[in-house]
Amino acid sequence: MDINLNVATAPKDSTFQLRINSDIKKTVEEIYAKTGMTLTDAFNTFIQQSINVEGLPFIITKNSKEALKEQAIAMLMLDLKRAEERANAEGWIDADDLEKELGVFN
């Protein structure tokens, strides 16, 4: 698979049609308009990201919302762990030590 394809710059030589409920179309057009995108822009972004990741650009499960939340928490915890390791390696001081150094007492 050629993952170097760029949807924005590739020649437009094919047509794709999609049937959709008019209320749903209007709703998503309004959502995308808030970000400055058209439905076509959003679809092209979806296609480009699918090419980039070589699959669907989001997790699909019965509980996708919960899975995304868990993934975000896991990423945050990893970032916190890395920050703590860096702080320890570089000799940073924690909030308690800072309070002692500044003479702040509770």
Give the topology, please:
Blueprint: H1 22-33, H2 39-53, H3 64-90, H4 95-102
Report what the structure shows:
It contains 4 helices and no strands. It is mostly helical and 106 residues long. It folds into 2 domains: 57 residues, no CATH class; 45 residues.
Give the terminus-to-terminus CA distance: 62 Å
What's the pLDDT, averaged over the residues? 86
Major beta sheet summary = none
Number of helices: 4
Order of helices and strands: HHHH
Uncertain regions: pLDDT < 50 for 5+ in a row?
A: none
CA gyration radius, whole angstroms: 23 Å
Could you tell me the number of beta strands? Answer: 0
Q: What's the number of structural domains?
A: 2
Structural class call reads mainly alpha
Shape: elongated
Strand share of the residues? under 5%
Please give the share of residues in helix. Answer: 55-70%
